[in-house]
Amino acid sequence: MAVAAELISLQSLEGRLLFAVPKKGRLLSASLNLLEGADIQFRRENRLDIALVKNLPIALVFLPAADIPTFVGEGRVDLGITGFDQVQEHDAGVRALARARRNSGEELSPEESAKPQGCETVMELGFGACRLQVQVPAKGGYAEGKDLIGKNIGTSFVHLAEEYFARLELEKDGLEGVSNGDGGYHLGARKLRTKIIELSGSVEAACALGVADGIVDLVESGETMKAAGLKAIDTVVDSSAILIKSKAPSNPAMVDLIAARIGGVITAQRYVLCQYNIPRTRLADASKITPGKRAPTITSLDEEGWVAVSVMVEKKRIAPAMDELMLVGATDILVLDIHNTRGS
Length: 344
Ligand SMILES: Nc1ncnc2c1ncn2[C@@H]1O[C@H](COP(=O)(O)OP(=O)(O)OP(=O)(O)O)[C@@H](O)[C@H]1O
Ligand SMILES: O=P(O)(O)OC[C@H]1O[C@H](OP(=O)(O)OP(=O)(O)O)[C@H](O)[C@@H]1O
Known about the structure:
D-Maltodextrin-Binding Protein, domain 2, binds adenosine-5'-triphosphate, 3 domains, Alpha-Beta Plaits, 5-stranded mixed sheet, about 350 residues, binds 1-O-pyrophosphono-5-O-phosphono-alpha-D-ribofuranose
């Protein structure tokens, strides 16, 4: 991490909530938009991975998305933005480590046992949607995950891939549904027959180059997979960006404040405000079309028998909702952008 000691001392971090943000990649720009919407003001110095927030007792820590669950899970950082897939992979890695230590007879120290491990999901953030999928050459003979048992699998998600193939191997051996009690599938004392090969990027090239028979990698549009001559045969995780928090944050009230601000921005991005006039006799029909997040706000109009309705509608539903409102007799339908929200 490029932290210039002369610019940001450890003392300047004292009393500040630490908030981890992806330093690059697919989640960076939407994460920065969220921070801006939540009025978290900072200036990131060139090459510096820590930024002090000007208007709140927070410091932002820019980290690779894959490392954020570790920092938050160990309580080194209070809050973080990362992909659900990364949290799942981290948790699978923690399970694998615990098993390895148990198998080698190593005891946890009292401090380790007492320390709250793992992170909690605060909310989904509405971006970074993708799927972690098992992909194979489109023209090959593999049709489902179990066809790859005993083969070579290239992936950056080694722990999730191991658990995925452990489950398939257990099923194949007639031990369907065995999870051995720690939340993820594993083979107990037996060894995984499928070979998981760790790759750190451009995983889609592994099959064509003969390194792997199949891969476990992320897919969004499917373009990368198609261009590499691959097809998906199974989904391991459905993912999107999430806000996570440590189980023992340094300042729970500040965590709640940031979560409320970010929640407000997300709601504002997802909804529009729809206003219309309608005869009171048709209100029940209109309310079915636009029920609102909780309930529509109804005000009487000066004109006898008419009411004005103000209601939040999901952006993706607004066009058909307007069509339907017209059909039940609504007039003067207006749609307004919501700049920010709180408590909705
Ligand atoms: N194609 C994609 N579409 C949408 N979200 C994605 C996509 N690829 C990755 N993501 C999400 O973004 C997260 C970070 O992935 P990304 O590849 O951008 O990270 P990175 O830090 O640049 O890592 P790397 O250097 O390994 O590429 C993933 O864990 C996933 O949640
Ligand atoms: O389905 P698509 O929309 O084509 O996206 C999928 C690609 O995006 C991710 O890689 P990224 O571009 O982040 O680079 P990487 O291979 O270096 O991880 C992922 O690993 C796939 O390669």
